[in-house]
Design goal:
With about 350 residues, the chain is of the alpha/beta class. The protein is about 40% helix and about 20% strand.
């Protein structure tokens, strides 16, 4: 049986086919000037569909006997982790952007379109809005303003399961802290298979990252808005895409940052040190959320490829628990693995929208 996985990102579309025990991947980068010609995320769907269609053809996969197609989950309504069948309710919510607009919204839509073509079921798995947070973790300190669970759920849970396998344990039996370090940063406390606390990695919470501001002082935000330097709309765009390292140095590529460090750039050194400090502090805070009972800490994402960065983080957190490094993003592999668990009857897909006790 063949499986297809689709992962639409902000500036790229990734696709993978698992066939004859091999995983073959394809990627297309979408230049910013091309994306800017579309009025909304949904309008990008034909372009991304065409890339996947052409890739399947060039690889000779167009007539494979696909048993399922799975897409990266987008900003649907909050749900627990797991695999979900794409259904009309989900299609409506992804199309309208019920919880916001992001390229990942196209994952379920594209999976559904290709599944219709290949006459097989369509799924998503562990979407970015996986919400397993404890009630106390959602309290922000202001009534009516709740902390949200929006994070790299797919990769975090995949790397948590991988680490559990290394330890010869079940994910559901372990307490883990997983730090995904990419353009955005999310750090989650995994309490026996549930992410009970995590920063909102999209809209300004937790550590700053190459692109995002992380948490900001309220009085400073108010001053910038009063001065006219920011409006509510520009604040959201800045927090999500023009903050962090970019706001200090004008770059988002960590490789370029490392070059600046080697050339003796003191400001670059300070900015990197600040980010590492905030990441370590976030991990330490979640150790307290787990009552200090942490079996392992996992560092993953693109920045985990940098031994300089991971070594400096480990120096600050190794007193908490053993640290495991899983570099890169493994979302396509995680999607394929999720689809196989369902098709091999090892997991039952959930129905969207999910309500307590609906399983």
């Amino acid at each position: 049986m063949a499986y297809m996985a689709i992962d639409p990102g902000s500036t790229s579309t990734k696709v993978a086919v698992y066939w004859n025990d091999k995983l073959i991947k394809g990627i297309m980068d979408h230049p910013r000037h091309v994306l800017d010609t579309f009025s909304c995320i949904f309008d990008q769907k034909p372009m991304r569909y065409s890339f996947i269609d052409n890739w399947l053809d060039t690889q000779g996969f167009s007539n494979l006997p696909f048993c399922s197609v799975i897409g990266r989950g987008g900003l649907i309504r909050p749900v627990p982790g797991g695999v979900y069948a794409v259904n009309p309710s989900m299609i409506t919510d992804l199309t309208m952007g019920v919880n916001g607009q992001h390229a990942s919204n196209l994952g379920g839509l594209l999976a559904y379109d290709f599944a219709e073509r290949f006459h097989c079921p369509a799924f998503i798995a562990d979407p970015v809005v996986v919400d397993e947070m404890s009630p106390e973790a959602k309290l922000s300190g202001l009534s009516g303003l709740e902390r949200k669970s929006i994070f790299h759920a797919l990769n975090q849970k995949a790397m948590a399961r991988k680490t559990a396998e290394k330890l010869g344990r079940s994910y559901g039996d372990l307490n883990l802290i997983v730090a995904h370090l990419g353009g955005g940063i999310s750090v989650g406390a995994h309490l026996r298979g549930r992410v009970v606390d995590v920063n909102d990695a999209l809209s300004g919470d937790g550590p700053y990252s190459p692109e995002r501001t992380g948490g900001l002082p309220v009085s400073g935000i108010a001053s910038l808005i009063r001065s006219g330097s920011l409006t509510p709309d520009t604040l959201e765009k800045t927090a999500a895409g023009k903050g962090g390292i970019f706001s200090y140095l004008g770059i988002t590529d960590i490789r370029e940052l490392i070059v600046r460090l080697k050339n003796g750039d003191e400001k670059a050194q300070l900015v990197l040190t600040g980010m590492i400090y905030q990441i370590a502090k976030e991990i330490g805070g979640l150790a307290a959320a787990l009552n200090g009972e942490v079996d392992a800490i996992v560092i993953t994402g693109g920045m985990a490829h940098s031994s300089d960065i991971t070594a400096r983080i480990i120096e600050k957190i190794r007193f908490i628990a053993p640290v495991y490094i899983e570099p890169g993003e493994h979302e396509l592999e995680a999607l394929i693995h999720s689809a196989r668990r369902v098709m091999e009857k090892k997991e039952v897909p959930r129905t969207y929208p999910w309500t307590e006790g609906c399983d």
